[in-house]
Design brief:
The complex is a heterodimer. By secondary structure, chain A is mainly β. Chain A has two domains: 30 residues; 169 residues, Porin, CATH 2.40.160. In chain A, the strands form two sheets. Chain A has an eight-stranded antiparallel barrel. In chain A, a hairpin with an 8-residue loop joins strand 3 and strand 4. By secondary structure, chain B is an alpha+beta fold. Chain B is 20% helix and 49% strand. In chain B, the strands form two sheets. Chain B has an eight-stranded antiparallel barrel. Chain B has a two-stranded antiparallel ribbon with strand order 7-8. In chain B, helix 1 crosses helix 2. The two termini of chain B are 52 Å apart. Classes of the chains: A mainly beta, B alpha+beta. The interface between A and B is large, with 62 and 56 residues.
């Protein structure tokens, strides 16, 4: 009986030590990409500018030689995304964009639109990496995969990101942004200063 | 029935009591082992706040703010704002990963995107660097502290230690910070900044810096 009691105590202690050791390994050895799989809610905010034809006010490539006007905007976005163990993700995003500085025109509210992301690199020791994202008009997310039926590419982004709170939070900053003018050519986004936070659901 | 059993088989009764006691002790040991780390920190907070040493570890941060850059007439180079003809306000967003040691020293790598407030046709400027910090004061009771940082172009972080190989000092700054969430979250606000003339910076060319940043612990406390 004493042996049984002693064994019981040892089992509890060993299991506890192993679990604690695993937690500390996560702290010391970093957060693996696979640990980021799951559902997240996200918010984004910042500023960016777009280039418009000075006569028609239609979007125009910011590198165009024709006369154009630059319109600074503020952006707030909210959405949800699903990420798989390889760092692929699919999200649904809604954005509200207003003039900067604000004026007497109402903000523009985008329809909810999907975006597909691929993690291009990730360092589990520092918890930092980069993601390439393509936004679409049409199509739909099925978990982290994308049904591209009827989807048209509209915008591409790259993000640098950093993971925290044991993989429950991911902060991101936009490092490139391209909004297509025609098909998948041209870019009517000029400069930008945008960042996002993903919180695990 | 229980009384009869106790009287009828006292050896079995005491054995059961001991077994229950042993199981209870084992469970306590298990629980204590599981939450040993956090318990240590919680006690520190209950008694006297978060210790500086408990802030050691890896953190990720996101921040944003605005500043004014001063340029020469051709908009080709930075110039001291005292004489510069061109003054341009910028918004910026930044992401940072840093490691802190138990003494309050830190080394971090920020990625910053900046854009003129008025907008331009050009893509945002994206820059990286190395930020080396030294905690200059910390009150564990309030969780408030101050930190002085040096910003470098180049260099690398090896944990909280800075390898200055190839690094050029570009600026110095001070921050006030406040700790929350049992030492897992730190809010920073910039309180001063000064740029130094170097191959990558010009003294006096940056004014009106406003920056706040939130650091979140990446893993668990040691």
């Amino acid at each position: 009986m004493r042996i049984a009691k002693f064994a019981l105590a040892i089992v509890f202690a060993v299991v506890g030590l192993v679990l604690l050791a695993n937690q500390r390994a996560a702290a010391d050895g970093g957060i693996p990409l696979a640990a980021l799989a799951g559902n997240y809610a996200f918010t984004c905010q910042g500023t960016f500018s777009i280039c418009l034809d000075s006569k028609t006010f239609a979007p125009i490539d910011c590198g165009a030689k024709t006369p154009l006007v630059v319109v600074p905007l503020t952006d707030l976005g909210i959405g949800e995304l699903t990420r798989d163990a390889k760092g692929n993700l699919c999200s649904n995003d809604l954005e509200v964009v207003s003039s900067l500085p604000v004026d007497n025109t109402p903000p523009s509210v985008s329809p909810v639109h999907p975006a597909v992301g691929i993690t291009s690199n990730y360092d589990p020791v520092t918890g930092t990496g980069d993601i390439s994202v393509i936004e679409y008009r049409g199509g739909k997310c099925i978990g982290s995969t994308f049904d591209s039926t009827g989807a048209v590419e509209t915008t591409t982004f790259t993000f640098h990101f950093a993971v925290s709170n044991q993989g429950k939070r991911i902060d991101m900053v936009v490092t490139s942004a391209v909004a297509f003018v025609t098909g998948t050519t041209g870019n009517f986004i000029g400069d930008f200063s945008l960042s996002c936070t993903n919180l695990r659901q | 029935m229980l009384t009869v059993r106790k009287l009828g088989n006292p050896v079995s009764y005491y054995t059961m009591m001991k077994l229950r006691t042993a199981a209870g002790l084992a469970l306590l040991l298990f629980m204590a082992t599981m939450i040993g780390g956090p318990v240590r920190v919680s006690h520190a907070q209950d008694d006297g706040g978060v210790t500086l040493a408990s802030l050691a570890g890896k953190f990720a941060a996101r921040g944003s703010g605005s500043l004014t850059l001063c340029f020469n007439a051709g908009h080709t180079a930075l110039q001291d704002c005292a004489t510069a003809p061109l003054v341009v306000p910028y918004n910026f967003a930044r992401l940072e990963q840093e490691t802190r040691d138990a003494a309050g020293n830190s080394c971090g790598v920020p990625t910053v995107t900046s854009a003129p407030v008025a907008g331009t046709t050009f893509p945002a400027g994206v820059s990286t660097g190395t930020i080396v910090g030294t905690t200059t004061s910390f009150d564990p009771t309030t969780g408030r502290g101050t930190i002085g940082v040096n910003g470098y172009h180049g260099g690398t972080c090896i944990g909280a230690v800075f390898d200055s190989t190839g690094a050029t000092l570009t600026n110095t700054a001070t921050f006030t910070f406040l700790v929350s969430d049992s030492g897992n979250r730190i809010e920073f606000i910039n309180t001063s900044a000064s740029y130094i003339t170097s191959a990558f910076s010009v003294a006096g060319s940056v004014k009106g810096l406003v920056l706040s940043e939130t650091f979140i612990r990446q893993g668990t406390q040691n």
